Amino acid sequence: MKTKFQETLNRANEVIFRYPMVLVMALLASVAVICIVETERSEITSYIKFIICSCLGISLMFALKMLSQRIGKELLLQVSGIIFLIVFYCILPDKKNNFTEVYAYTIAVTALLSHLLVSFVPFLEKDRELRFWQYNKNLFINIFLTAIFTGVLTGGVELAILAVDKLFDFNFHDRIYRDTFFVLAIFGSSFIFLLFNDKGLNNLEKDGTYPVVLKFFTQFILIPLLLIYVTILYFYSVKILINWQLPRGWVSYLVLAYSIVGILALLLVHPLKEENAKSWVRIFSKAFYYTIAPLIILLFTAIFTRILEYGYTEPRYFVLLLALWLLIIVVYFIFNKKATIKFIPVSLFLFGTFALIFPYLNAFSVAKRSQKTELMNILNQYQLMSAGKINFQQKVTDTVRNEIADKFEFLAERKQSKFLSSLLNEKDQAELDDNIKNGTFYNINYNIQNKFSEVDVTVKNRAYEMNRLVLVREEQAVELGNYQYLISFHRYSRETQKLNNDQFELTDELTEKSSLKLNLNSQEEIDFGPQIIKLFEKNKDKTGTVKVPEIAMESDVGKYHVKIIFSEITREKYSDNDTASIYYENVYILIKLK
Protein backbone atom coordinates (compact mmCIF):
# COMPACT_ATOMS: atom_id res chain seq x y z
CA MET A 1 0.00 0.00 0.00
CA LYS A 2 2.78 2.38 0.96
CA THR A 3 4.65 1.51 -2.24
CA LYS A 4 1.58 2.22 -4.39
CA PHE A 5 0.94 5.50 -2.63
CA GLN A 6 4.57 6.53 -3.12
CA GLU A 7 4.41 5.55 -6.80
CA THR A 8 1.25 7.63 -7.31
CA LEU A 9 2.84 10.58 -5.52
CA ASN A 10 5.95 10.33 -7.68
CA ARG A 11 3.88 10.32 -10.87
CA ALA A 12 1.94 13.35 -9.67
CA ASN A 13 5.20 15.17 -8.96
CA GLU A 14 6.50 14.28 -12.42
CA VAL A 15 3.36 15.72 -14.02
CA ILE A 16 3.65 18.94 -12.01
CA PHE A 17 7.28 19.50 -12.93
CA ARG A 18 6.90 18.34 -16.55
CA TYR A 19 3.77 20.35 -17.41
CA PRO A 20 3.79 23.37 -15.06
CA MET A 21 2.35 25.87 -17.55
CA VAL A 22 -0.50 23.59 -18.60
CA LEU A 23 -1.50 23.10 -14.96
CA VAL A 24 -1.15 26.83 -14.21
CA MET A 25 -3.55 27.61 -17.05
CA ALA A 26 -6.03 24.99 -15.82
CA LEU A 27 -5.80 26.32 -12.25
CA LEU A 28 -6.30 29.93 -13.39
CA ALA A 29 -9.32 28.92 -15.45
CA SER A 30 -10.85 27.10 -12.45
CA VAL A 31 -10.33 30.07 -10.13
CA ALA A 32 -11.70 32.52 -12.71
CA VAL A 33 -14.88 30.45 -13.19
CA ILE A 34 -15.41 30.39 -9.42
CA CYS A 35 -14.84 34.15 -9.19
CA ILE A 36 -17.24 34.94 -12.01
CA VAL A 37 -20.12 33.35 -10.12
CA GLU A 38 -19.43 35.42 -7.01
CA THR A 39 -18.58 38.76 -8.64
CA GLU A 40 -20.55 41.89 -9.33
CA ARG A 41 -21.94 42.03 -12.84
CA SER A 42 -19.83 45.05 -13.76
CA GLU A 43 -16.61 43.09 -13.27
CA ILE A 44 -17.68 39.91 -15.04
CA THR A 45 -16.19 40.81 -18.45
CA SER A 46 -12.61 40.71 -17.19
CA TYR A 47 -13.16 37.24 -15.78
CA ILE A 48 -14.81 36.06 -18.99
CA LYS A 49 -11.78 37.21 -20.96
CA PHE A 50 -9.48 35.57 -18.41
CA ILE A 51 -11.37 32.27 -18.57
CA ILE A 52 -11.28 32.23 -22.37
CA CYS A 53 -7.54 32.89 -22.49
CA SER A 54 -6.77 30.40 -19.70
CA CYS A 55 -8.77 27.61 -21.33
CA LEU A 56 -7.11 28.42 -24.65
CA GLY A 57 -3.77 28.32 -22.86
CA ILE A 58 -4.31 24.71 -21.71
CA SER A 59 -4.20 23.29 -25.25
CA LEU A 60 -1.69 25.88 -26.49
CA MET A 61 0.84 25.19 -23.70
CA PHE A 62 0.44 21.44 -24.17
CA ALA A 63 1.15 21.83 -27.90
CA LEU A 64 4.24 23.92 -27.20
CA LYS A 65 5.40 21.36 -24.62
CA MET A 66 5.15 18.59 -27.23
CA LEU A 67 7.10 20.73 -29.69
CA SER A 68 9.79 21.50 -27.08
CA GLN A 69 10.22 17.77 -26.43
CA ARG A 70 11.04 17.44 -30.11
CA ILE A 71 13.21 20.51 -30.77
CA GLY A 72 14.06 21.90 -27.31
CA LYS A 73 13.86 25.69 -26.66
CA GLU A 74 11.15 25.16 -24.06
CA LEU A 75 11.54 28.54 -22.35
CA LEU A 76 11.36 30.45 -25.63
CA LEU A 77 8.25 28.55 -26.70
CA GLN A 78 6.51 29.11 -23.36
CA VAL A 79 7.25 32.83 -23.40
CA SER A 80 5.89 33.02 -26.96
CA GLY A 81 2.73 31.25 -25.82
CA ILE A 82 2.23 33.65 -22.90
CA ILE A 83 2.74 36.68 -25.18
CA PHE A 84 0.13 35.29 -27.59
CA LEU A 85 -2.39 34.84 -24.75
CA ILE A 86 -1.78 38.39 -23.47
CA VAL A 87 -2.33 39.80 -26.98
CA PHE A 88 -5.47 37.70 -27.39
CA TYR A 89 -6.76 38.98 -24.02
CA CYS A 90 -6.25 42.57 -25.17
CA ILE A 91 -8.09 41.89 -28.43
CA LEU A 92 -11.25 40.83 -26.59
CA PRO A 93 -13.67 43.65 -25.67
CA ASP A 94 -13.83 45.26 -22.24
CA LYS A 95 -17.64 45.43 -22.11
CA LYS A 96 -19.94 42.44 -21.91
CA ASN A 97 -22.38 43.94 -24.45
CA ASN A 98 -19.57 44.18 -27.00
CA PHE A 99 -19.01 40.41 -26.95
CA THR A 100 -20.77 40.04 -30.29
CA GLU A 101 -20.83 36.98 -32.52
CA VAL A 102 -17.66 38.25 -34.21
CA TYR A 103 -15.71 37.43 -31.07
CA ALA A 104 -17.54 34.12 -30.73
CA TYR A 105 -16.25 33.11 -34.18
CA THR A 106 -12.76 34.35 -33.32
CA ILE A 107 -12.67 32.39 -30.06
CA ALA A 108 -14.13 29.21 -31.58
CA VAL A 109 -11.73 29.16 -34.55
CA THR A 110 -8.72 29.99 -32.35
CA ALA A 111 -9.64 27.16 -29.96
CA LEU A 112 -9.90 24.78 -32.93
CA LEU A 113 -6.50 25.92 -34.22
CA SER A 114 -4.87 25.36 -30.82
CA HIS A 115 -6.17 21.78 -30.74
CA LEU A 116 -5.08 21.17 -34.32
CA LEU A 117 -1.65 22.43 -33.32
CA VAL A 118 -1.49 19.74 -30.64
CA SER A 119 -2.21 17.08 -33.26
CA PHE A 120 0.65 17.80 -35.65
CA VAL A 121 3.21 20.29 -34.25
CA PRO A 122 5.74 17.62 -33.07
CA PHE A 123 5.63 15.94 -36.50
CA LEU A 124 6.54 18.62 -39.00
CA GLU A 125 9.46 16.49 -40.18
CA LYS A 126 8.96 13.92 -42.94
CA ASP A 127 8.89 10.10 -42.60
CA ARG A 128 7.03 9.97 -39.27
CA GLU A 129 3.68 8.74 -40.60
CA LEU A 130 3.12 5.80 -38.23
CA ARG A 131 4.44 7.69 -35.21
CA PHE A 132 2.11 10.57 -36.08
CA TRP A 133 -0.83 8.16 -36.11
CA GLN A 134 0.19 6.46 -32.86
CA TYR A 135 0.60 9.84 -31.16
CA ASN A 136 -2.89 11.03 -32.13
CA LYS A 137 -4.44 7.64 -31.40
CA ASN A 138 -3.02 7.71 -27.88
CA LEU A 139 -4.21 11.30 -27.37
CA PHE A 140 -7.69 10.27 -28.54
CA ILE A 141 -7.80 7.37 -26.10
CA ASN A 142 -6.44 9.49 -23.27
CA ILE A 143 -9.12 12.13 -23.82
CA PHE A 144 -11.81 9.44 -23.70
CA LEU A 145 -10.37 7.94 -20.50
CA THR A 146 -10.00 11.40 -18.98
CA ALA A 147 -13.70 12.08 -19.53
CA ILE A 148 -14.65 8.83 -17.76
CA PHE A 149 -12.24 9.28 -14.85
CA THR A 150 -13.19 12.94 -14.36
CA GLY A 151 -16.90 12.11 -14.38
CA VAL A 152 -16.48 9.34 -11.78
CA LEU A 153 -14.14 11.43 -9.62
CA THR A 154 -16.38 14.50 -9.69
CA GLY A 155 -19.51 12.50 -8.92
CA GLY A 156 -17.76 10.61 -6.12
CA VAL A 157 -16.36 13.71 -4.43
CA GLU A 158 -19.68 15.57 -4.69
CA LEU A 159 -21.50 12.61 -3.10
CA ALA A 160 -18.87 12.40 -0.35
CA ILE A 161 -19.37 16.09 0.49
CA LEU A 162 -23.13 15.57 0.47
CA ALA A 163 -22.83 12.55 2.80
CA VAL A 164 -20.68 14.47 5.31
CA ASP A 165 -23.05 17.43 5.10
CA LYS A 166 -26.20 15.39 5.79
CA LEU A 167 -24.80 12.88 8.27
CA PHE A 168 -22.91 15.35 10.46
CA ASP A 169 -25.19 18.39 10.02
CA PHE A 170 -22.45 20.71 8.75
CA ASN A 171 -24.96 22.68 6.62
CA PHE A 172 -22.45 23.40 3.87
CA HIS A 173 -23.16 26.35 1.59
CA ASP A 174 -24.19 25.44 -1.97
CA ARG A 175 -21.02 27.24 -3.08
CA ILE A 176 -18.92 24.24 -1.93
CA TYR A 177 -20.60 21.88 -4.40
CA ARG A 178 -20.37 24.38 -7.23
CA ASP A 179 -16.71 25.28 -6.63
CA THR A 180 -15.73 21.63 -6.24
CA PHE A 181 -17.33 20.85 -9.59
CA PHE A 182 -15.47 23.67 -11.37
CA VAL A 183 -12.09 22.70 -9.88
CA LEU A 184 -12.44 19.00 -10.71
CA ALA A 185 -14.01 19.58 -14.15
CA ILE A 186 -11.26 21.97 -15.32
CA PHE A 187 -8.12 21.53 -13.23
CA GLY A 188 -8.86 17.92 -12.27
CA SER A 189 -9.53 16.79 -15.83
CA SER A 190 -6.33 18.50 -17.05
CA PHE A 191 -4.28 16.80 -14.33
CA ILE A 192 -5.78 13.37 -15.10
CA PHE A 193 -5.13 13.84 -18.83
CA LEU A 194 -1.49 14.67 -18.14
CA LEU A 195 -1.17 11.60 -15.89
CA PHE A 196 -2.31 9.43 -18.80
CA ASN A 197 0.30 11.01 -21.05
CA ASP A 198 3.03 9.56 -18.86
CA LYS A 199 6.43 10.91 -19.97
CA GLY A 200 5.14 12.85 -22.94
CA LEU A 201 6.01 12.63 -26.60
CA ASN A 202 8.28 9.58 -26.45
CA ASN A 203 5.57 7.44 -24.92
CA LEU A 204 2.74 8.88 -27.01
CA GLU A 205 4.41 8.09 -30.33
CA LYS A 206 5.51 4.56 -29.39
CA ASP A 207 4.27 1.81 -31.65
CA GLY A 208 1.57 -0.26 -29.99
CA THR A 209 -1.18 -2.74 -30.73
CA TYR A 210 -4.37 -1.44 -32.30
CA PRO A 211 -7.03 -1.07 -29.56
CA VAL A 212 -9.77 -3.68 -29.93
CA VAL A 213 -12.51 -1.31 -28.80
CA LEU A 214 -11.43 1.35 -31.30
CA LYS A 215 -11.27 -1.26 -34.06
CA PHE A 216 -14.79 -2.49 -33.29
CA PHE A 217 -16.23 1.02 -33.00
CA THR A 218 -14.74 2.17 -36.31
CA GLN A 219 -15.39 -0.95 -38.38
CA PHE A 220 -18.82 -1.98 -37.17
CA ILE A 221 -20.45 1.26 -36.02
CA LEU A 222 -18.85 4.37 -37.51
CA ILE A 223 -18.22 3.18 -41.09
CA PRO A 224 -21.65 1.47 -41.50
CA LEU A 225 -23.35 4.66 -40.26
CA LEU A 226 -21.36 6.65 -42.81
CA LEU A 227 -22.52 4.31 -45.57
CA ILE A 228 -26.15 4.86 -44.54
CA TYR A 229 -25.56 8.60 -44.36
CA VAL A 230 -23.98 8.88 -47.81
CA THR A 231 -26.81 6.80 -49.29
CA ILE A 232 -29.33 9.33 -47.94
CA LEU A 233 -27.32 12.21 -49.40
CA TYR A 234 -27.13 10.52 -52.80
CA PHE A 235 -30.89 9.92 -52.84
CA TYR A 236 -31.38 13.60 -52.01
CA SER A 237 -29.07 14.54 -54.90
CA VAL A 238 -31.16 12.40 -57.26
CA LYS A 239 -34.32 14.12 -55.98
CA ILE A 240 -32.76 17.53 -56.76
CA LEU A 241 -31.95 16.42 -60.30
CA ILE A 242 -35.45 14.97 -60.87
CA ASN A 243 -37.26 18.04 -59.52
CA TRP A 244 -34.62 20.39 -60.96
CA GLN A 245 -34.56 22.56 -57.82
CA LEU A 246 -31.81 24.22 -55.84
CA PRO A 247 -30.61 22.35 -52.73
CA ARG A 248 -31.70 23.51 -49.30
CA GLY A 249 -29.18 25.56 -47.38
CA TRP A 250 -28.71 23.15 -44.50
CA VAL A 251 -27.57 20.38 -46.85
CA SER A 252 -24.14 22.10 -46.74
CA TYR A 253 -23.78 21.16 -43.09
CA LEU A 254 -24.86 17.56 -43.78
CA VAL A 255 -22.27 17.14 -46.53
CA LEU A 256 -19.57 18.69 -44.34
CA ALA A 257 -20.57 16.48 -41.41
CA TYR A 258 -20.37 13.33 -43.55
CA SER A 259 -17.02 14.37 -45.01
CA ILE A 260 -15.37 15.34 -41.71
CA VAL A 261 -16.65 12.29 -39.81
CA GLY A 262 -15.59 10.10 -42.75
CA ILE A 263 -12.10 11.57 -42.69
CA LEU A 264 -11.96 10.92 -38.94
CA ALA A 265 -12.98 7.29 -39.58
CA LEU A 266 -10.23 6.95 -42.17
CA LEU A 267 -7.69 8.28 -39.72
CA LEU A 268 -8.85 5.82 -37.07
CA VAL A 269 -8.49 2.80 -39.39
CA HIS A 270 -5.32 4.06 -41.10
CA PRO A 271 -3.05 1.14 -39.98
CA LEU A 272 -5.74 -1.46 -40.81
CA LYS A 273 -5.96 -0.64 -44.50
CA GLU A 274 -2.66 -2.43 -45.11
CA GLU A 275 -3.86 -5.67 -43.48
CA ASN A 276 -5.03 -8.34 -45.91
CA ALA A 277 -7.62 -9.58 -43.44
CA LYS A 278 -9.26 -6.18 -43.45
CA SER A 279 -9.61 -5.75 -47.19
CA TRP A 280 -13.02 -4.09 -46.87
CA VAL A 281 -11.40 -1.37 -44.75
CA ARG A 282 -8.86 -0.87 -47.55
CA ILE A 283 -11.69 -0.66 -50.09
CA PHE A 284 -13.49 1.93 -47.97
CA SER A 285 -10.28 3.94 -47.59
CA LYS A 286 -9.84 4.12 -51.36
CA ALA A 287 -13.51 4.62 -52.24
CA PHE A 288 -14.34 7.25 -49.62
CA TYR A 289 -12.80 10.22 -51.42
CA TYR A 290 -14.55 9.24 -54.66
CA THR A 291 -17.90 9.20 -52.83
CA ILE A 292 -17.31 12.78 -51.66
CA ALA A 293 -16.58 14.15 -55.14
CA PRO A 294 -20.23 14.37 -56.35
CA LEU A 295 -21.31 15.70 -52.97
CA ILE A 296 -18.80 18.55 -53.27
CA ILE A 297 -20.74 19.77 -56.33
CA LEU A 298 -23.91 19.70 -54.20
CA LEU A 299 -22.06 21.52 -51.41
CA PHE A 300 -20.81 24.34 -53.65
CA THR A 301 -24.23 24.71 -55.27
CA ALA A 302 -25.92 25.06 -51.86
CA ILE A 303 -23.45 27.56 -50.40
CA PHE A 304 -23.24 29.75 -53.53
CA THR A 305 -27.04 29.83 -53.70
CA ARG A 306 -27.07 31.48 -50.27
CA ILE A 307 -24.10 33.75 -50.94
CA LEU A 308 -25.45 35.05 -54.27
CA GLU A 309 -28.84 35.74 -52.69
CA TYR A 310 -27.82 37.24 -49.34
CA GLY A 311 -24.09 37.93 -49.55
CA TYR A 312 -21.27 36.73 -47.32
CA THR A 313 -21.54 36.39 -43.55
CA GLU A 314 -18.93 34.73 -41.34
CA PRO A 315 -20.77 31.36 -41.20
CA ARG A 316 -21.16 31.28 -45.00
CA TYR A 317 -17.51 32.26 -45.40
CA PHE A 318 -16.41 29.41 -43.12
CA VAL A 319 -18.66 26.91 -44.91
CA LEU A 320 -17.21 27.98 -48.26
CA LEU A 321 -13.68 27.75 -46.88
CA LEU A 322 -14.37 24.24 -45.55
CA ALA A 323 -15.76 23.29 -48.96
CA LEU A 324 -12.55 24.51 -50.64
CA TRP A 325 -10.47 22.65 -48.05
CA LEU A 326 -12.49 19.50 -48.65
CA LEU A 327 -12.00 19.81 -52.41
CA ILE A 328 -8.23 20.10 -51.92
CA ILE A 329 -8.24 17.07 -49.59
CA VAL A 330 -10.12 14.96 -52.15
CA VAL A 331 -7.82 15.98 -55.02
CA TYR A 332 -4.72 15.42 -52.86
CA PHE A 333 -5.62 11.89 -51.78
CA ILE A 334 -6.98 10.77 -55.15
CA PHE A 335 -4.05 11.96 -57.28
CA ASN A 336 -1.10 11.88 -54.86
CA LYS A 337 0.27 8.35 -54.55
CA LYS A 338 2.50 9.38 -51.63
CA ALA A 339 -0.22 11.20 -49.69
CA THR A 340 0.33 11.57 -45.96
CA ILE A 341 -2.40 11.86 -43.34
CA LYS A 342 -0.48 14.74 -41.73
CA PHE A 343 -1.73 16.86 -44.62
CA ILE A 344 -5.27 16.84 -43.13
CA PRO A 345 -4.67 18.72 -39.84
CA VAL A 346 -1.87 20.87 -41.26
CA SER A 347 -3.97 22.08 -44.21
CA LEU A 348 -7.00 22.72 -41.98
CA PHE A 349 -4.80 24.73 -39.60
CA LEU A 350 -3.52 26.86 -42.48
CA PHE A 351 -7.05 27.46 -43.79
CA GLY A 352 -8.26 28.46 -40.32
CA THR A 353 -5.33 30.84 -39.82
CA PHE A 354 -6.01 32.37 -43.23
CA ALA A 355 -9.68 32.92 -42.29
CA LEU A 356 -8.72 34.76 -39.11
CA ILE A 357 -5.78 36.98 -39.98
CA PHE A 358 -5.15 37.21 -43.73
CA PRO A 359 -5.49 40.89 -44.72
CA TYR A 360 -8.54 41.89 -46.78
CA LEU A 361 -9.61 38.27 -47.42
CA ASN A 362 -10.23 37.11 -43.84
CA ALA A 363 -13.77 36.14 -42.80
CA PHE A 364 -14.61 39.42 -41.08
CA SER A 365 -13.35 41.75 -43.81
CA VAL A 366 -15.18 39.82 -46.53
CA ALA A 367 -18.42 39.72 -44.52
CA LYS A 368 -18.36 43.47 -43.83
CA ARG A 369 -17.69 44.42 -47.46
CA SER A 370 -20.33 42.00 -48.70
CA GLN A 371 -23.08 43.20 -46.36
CA LYS A 372 -22.30 46.85 -47.13
CA THR A 373 -22.74 46.06 -50.81
CA GLU A 374 -25.95 44.13 -50.15
CA LEU A 375 -27.37 47.00 -48.09
CA MET A 376 -26.61 49.58 -50.79
CA ASN A 377 -28.11 47.28 -53.46
CA ILE A 378 -31.37 47.05 -51.49
CA LEU A 379 -31.53 50.80 -50.90
CA ASN A 380 -30.91 51.56 -54.57
CA GLN A 381 -33.19 48.79 -55.86
CA TYR A 382 -36.18 50.14 -53.91
CA GLN A 383 -35.19 53.79 -54.49
CA LEU A 384 -34.84 54.54 -50.78
CA MET A 385 -31.93 56.99 -51.14
CA SER A 386 -32.51 60.73 -51.25
CA ALA A 387 -29.58 63.20 -51.26
CA GLY A 388 -27.28 60.44 -50.04
CA LYS A 389 -29.49 59.59 -47.05
CA ILE A 390 -32.15 56.92 -46.46
CA ASN A 391 -35.66 58.24 -47.10
CA PHE A 392 -37.68 56.64 -44.32
CA GLN A 393 -40.92 58.17 -45.68
CA GLN A 394 -40.72 55.97 -48.76
CA LYS A 395 -43.22 53.09 -48.74
CA VAL A 396 -41.62 49.64 -48.33
CA THR A 397 -42.70 46.11 -47.50
CA ASP A 398 -42.00 44.72 -44.05
CA THR A 399 -39.56 42.16 -45.49
CA VAL A 400 -37.44 44.91 -47.09
CA ARG A 401 -37.59 47.00 -43.92
CA ASN A 402 -36.54 44.03 -41.77
CA GLU A 403 -33.69 43.16 -44.11
CA ILE A 404 -32.35 46.71 -43.94
CA ALA A 405 -32.65 46.72 -40.14
CA ASP A 406 -30.87 43.36 -39.89
CA LYS A 407 -27.98 44.61 -42.00
CA PHE A 408 -27.72 47.76 -39.89
CA GLU A 409 -27.47 45.61 -36.76
CA PHE A 410 -24.96 43.28 -38.45
CA LEU A 411 -22.67 46.13 -39.51
CA ALA A 412 -23.07 47.99 -36.21
CA GLU A 413 -21.84 44.91 -34.34
CA ARG A 414 -18.75 45.06 -36.54
CA LYS A 415 -18.11 48.74 -35.70
CA GLN A 416 -19.02 50.13 -39.12
CA SER A 417 -20.49 53.28 -37.59
CA LYS A 418 -18.89 55.66 -40.13
CA PHE A 419 -20.48 53.87 -43.08
CA LEU A 420 -23.89 53.58 -41.38
CA SER A 421 -23.85 57.19 -40.16
CA SER A 422 -23.33 58.41 -43.71
CA LEU A 423 -26.79 57.00 -44.53
CA LEU A 424 -28.59 58.82 -41.67
CA ASN A 425 -29.36 62.39 -40.64
CA GLU A 426 -27.59 64.03 -37.68
CA LYS A 427 -30.21 63.09 -35.07
CA ASP A 428 -30.25 59.46 -36.17
CA GLN A 429 -26.45 59.42 -36.27
CA ALA A 430 -26.24 60.43 -32.60
CA GLU A 431 -28.72 57.70 -31.66
CA LEU A 432 -26.75 55.12 -33.67
CA ASP A 433 -23.44 56.13 -32.07
CA ASP A 434 -24.94 55.87 -28.56
CA ASN A 435 -26.26 52.37 -29.22
CA ILE A 436 -22.93 51.20 -30.66
CA LYS A 437 -21.06 52.73 -27.72
CA ASN A 438 -23.38 51.05 -25.18
CA GLY A 439 -23.42 47.75 -27.06
CA THR A 440 -27.24 47.80 -27.44
CA PHE A 441 -27.22 46.56 -31.01
CA TYR A 442 -30.74 45.10 -30.83
CA ASN A 443 -32.01 48.68 -30.32
CA ILE A 444 -30.46 49.65 -33.66
CA ASN A 445 -32.57 46.99 -35.38
CA TYR A 446 -35.76 48.18 -33.67
CA ASN A 447 -34.98 51.84 -34.32
CA ILE A 448 -34.37 51.35 -38.03
CA GLN A 449 -37.60 49.37 -38.36
CA ASN A 450 -39.59 52.05 -36.57
CA LYS A 451 -38.18 54.92 -38.67
CA PHE A 452 -40.07 53.68 -41.75
CA SER A 453 -43.42 55.45 -41.63
CA GLU A 454 -45.20 53.59 -44.45
CA VAL A 455 -44.81 49.83 -44.24
CA ASP A 456 -46.81 47.37 -46.31
CA VAL A 457 -47.24 44.33 -44.03
CA THR A 458 -47.21 41.04 -45.92
CA VAL A 459 -49.68 38.26 -45.14
CA LYS A 460 -46.89 36.07 -43.80
CA ASN A 461 -45.89 38.59 -41.13
CA ARG A 462 -49.23 40.26 -40.48
CA ALA A 463 -50.11 38.35 -37.31
CA TYR A 464 -46.69 39.02 -35.80
CA GLU A 465 -46.63 42.68 -36.80
CA MET A 466 -50.12 43.52 -35.58
CA ASN A 467 -49.61 41.94 -32.15
CA ARG A 468 -46.24 43.32 -31.13
CA LEU A 469 -46.11 46.39 -28.92
CA VAL A 470 -42.94 47.92 -27.48
CA LEU A 471 -43.36 50.67 -24.90
CA VAL A 472 -40.26 52.86 -24.71
CA ARG A 473 -39.58 55.49 -22.08
CA GLU A 474 -39.04 58.89 -23.73
CA GLU A 475 -36.33 59.97 -21.30
CA GLN A 476 -33.78 57.19 -20.76
CA ALA A 477 -32.04 58.95 -17.87
CA VAL A 478 -33.51 58.03 -14.49
CA GLU A 479 -34.12 60.91 -12.09
CA LEU A 480 -33.41 59.82 -8.50
CA GLY A 481 -35.32 62.62 -6.79
CA ASN A 482 -35.50 62.11 -3.03
CA TYR A 483 -34.87 58.38 -3.27
CA GLN A 484 -31.86 57.07 -1.34
CA TYR A 485 -30.99 53.83 -3.16
CA LEU A 486 -31.09 52.30 -6.64
CA ILE A 487 -30.91 48.58 -7.45
CA SER A 488 -31.41 46.85 -10.78
CA PHE A 489 -32.45 43.46 -12.11
CA HIS A 490 -31.68 42.01 -15.55
CA ARG A 491 -34.06 39.92 -17.61
CA TYR A 492 -31.81 36.85 -17.46
CA SER A 493 -30.36 37.35 -13.99
CA ARG A 494 -32.59 38.23 -11.05
CA GLU A 495 -30.42 37.22 -8.13
CA THR A 496 -31.36 38.56 -4.73
CA GLN A 497 -30.16 42.15 -4.19
CA LYS A 498 -28.98 43.19 -0.73
CA LEU A 499 -29.67 46.58 0.86
CA ASN A 500 -28.28 47.06 4.37
CA ASN A 501 -29.59 43.97 6.17
CA ASP A 502 -32.56 43.48 3.85
CA GLN A 503 -32.90 41.35 0.73
CA PHE A 504 -34.99 42.23 -2.34
CA GLU A 505 -36.02 39.54 -4.80
CA LEU A 506 -37.91 40.01 -8.07
CA THR A 507 -40.13 37.19 -9.34
CA ASP A 508 -41.13 37.59 -13.00
CA GLU A 509 -44.26 35.70 -14.08
CA LEU A 510 -45.67 38.35 -16.41
CA THR A 511 -46.20 35.91 -19.26
CA GLU A 512 -47.57 33.04 -17.18
CA LYS A 513 -49.63 34.84 -14.51
CA SER A 514 -49.44 38.56 -15.36
CA SER A 515 -47.43 38.92 -12.18
CA LEU A 516 -44.21 40.78 -11.28
CA LYS A 517 -43.60 40.49 -7.54
CA LEU A 518 -41.02 42.35 -5.47
CA ASN A 519 -40.29 40.41 -2.30
CA LEU A 520 -38.69 41.81 0.87
CA ASN A 521 -36.87 39.31 3.12
CA SER A 522 -39.20 36.50 1.94
CA GLN A 523 -41.90 37.98 4.17
CA GLU A 524 -43.61 40.87 2.39
CA GLU A 525 -44.26 41.36 -1.28
CA ILE A 526 -46.00 43.64 -3.77
CA ASP A 527 -47.24 42.75 -7.23
CA PHE A 528 -46.68 45.27 -10.03
CA GLY A 529 -48.19 42.94 -12.66
CA PRO A 530 -51.71 44.44 -12.70
CA GLN A 531 -50.30 47.96 -13.22
CA ILE A 532 -48.15 46.75 -16.13
CA ILE A 533 -51.15 45.02 -17.76
CA LYS A 534 -53.17 48.20 -17.28
CA LEU A 535 -50.44 50.21 -19.01
CA PHE A 536 -50.59 47.91 -22.05
CA GLU A 537 -54.40 48.13 -22.06
CA LYS A 538 -54.12 51.91 -22.37
CA ASN A 539 -52.13 51.38 -25.58
CA LYS A 540 -53.98 48.30 -26.85
CA ASP A 541 -54.89 49.91 -30.19
CA LYS A 542 -51.24 50.66 -31.01
CA THR A 543 -48.52 48.47 -32.56
CA GLY A 544 -44.79 48.67 -33.09
CA THR A 545 -42.74 50.96 -30.85
CA VAL A 546 -44.63 53.55 -28.85
CA LYS A 547 -42.89 56.21 -26.78
CA VAL A 548 -44.51 57.03 -23.44
CA PRO A 549 -43.53 59.67 -20.86
CA GLU A 550 -42.71 57.09 -18.21
CA ILE A 551 -42.98 53.38 -17.48
CA ALA A 552 -43.04 53.41 -13.68
CA MET A 553 -45.07 52.13 -10.72
CA GLU A 554 -44.85 52.96 -7.02
CA SER A 555 -45.83 51.16 -3.82
CA ASP A 556 -44.84 50.46 -0.21
CA VAL A 557 -43.24 47.29 1.04
CA GLY A 558 -42.22 46.92 4.67
CA LYS A 559 -40.40 50.03 5.87
CA TYR A 560 -39.60 51.15 2.31
CA HIS A 561 -41.32 53.07 -0.46
CA VAL A 562 -40.23 51.76 -3.87
CA LYS A 563 -40.56 52.95 -7.45
CA ILE A 564 -40.00 50.46 -10.27
CA ILE A 565 -38.86 51.88 -13.64
CA PHE A 566 -38.49 50.24 -17.09
CA SER A 567 -36.55 51.75 -19.99
CA GLU A 568 -38.71 49.63 -22.31
CA ILE A 569 -41.09 46.70 -22.05
CA THR A 570 -42.50 44.50 -24.83
CA ARG A 571 -45.67 42.47 -25.32
CA GLU A 572 -45.92 39.95 -28.15
CA LYS A 573 -48.95 37.92 -29.19
CA TYR A 574 -49.02 35.83 -32.37
CA SER A 575 -52.78 35.33 -32.46
CA ASP A 576 -55.85 36.08 -30.41
CA ASN A 577 -55.83 32.55 -28.99
CA ASP A 578 -52.20 32.71 -27.82
CA THR A 579 -50.96 33.92 -24.43
CA ALA A 580 -49.26 37.31 -24.59
CA SER A 581 -45.52 37.18 -23.93
CA ILE A 582 -44.28 40.15 -21.86
CA TYR A 583 -40.59 40.80 -21.32
CA TYR A 584 -37.99 43.52 -20.71
CA GLU A 585 -34.20 43.82 -20.58
CA ASN A 586 -33.55 45.83 -17.40
CA VAL A 587 -35.67 47.10 -14.54
CA TYR A 588 -34.51 49.75 -12.04
CA ILE A 589 -35.91 50.09 -8.54
CA LEU A 590 -35.60 53.33 -6.55
CA ILE A 591 -35.89 52.88 -2.78
CA LYS A 592 -36.32 55.21 0.20
CA LEU A 593 -37.28 54.81 3.83
CA LYS A 594 -40.88 55.76 4.60
* Percent strand: 5-15%
* Strand order within the widest beta sheet: 11-5-14-15
Q: For the report, how would you describe the main beta sheet? A: 4 strands, mixed
Structure classification: alpha+beta
Distance between the termini: 69 Å
Total of DSSP H or I helical runs spanning 4+ residues:
21
Q: On the 0-100 scale, what is the average pLDDT? A: 85
Cα radius of gyration in angstroms: 29 Å
Name the overall outline: globular
List descriptors.
four-stranded antiparallel sheet, alpha+beta, 594 residues, four-stranded mixed sheet, 21 helices
Sequence-ordered SSE layout with sheet pairings:
Blueprint: H1 2-18, H2 20-37, H3 44-71, H4 74-91, H5 101-120, H6 129-168, H7 174-196, H8 201-204, H9 212-243, H10 251-268, H11 279-310, H12 314-335, H13 343-357, H14 363-381, E1 385-386, E2 389-390, E3 396-397, H15 398-413, H16 417-421, H17 426-438, H18 441-451, E4 455-456, H19 459-466, E5 468-473, E6 485-490, E7 497-499, E8 502-509, H20 510-513, E9 515-520, E10 524-527, H21 529-538, E11 544-548, E12 552-557, E13 560-566, E14 568-572, E15 581-584, E16 586-593
Helix pairs in contact: 2-3, 2-7, 3-4, 3-5, 5-13, 6-7, 9-10, 9-11, 10-11, 10-12, 11-12, 12-13, 14-15, 15-18
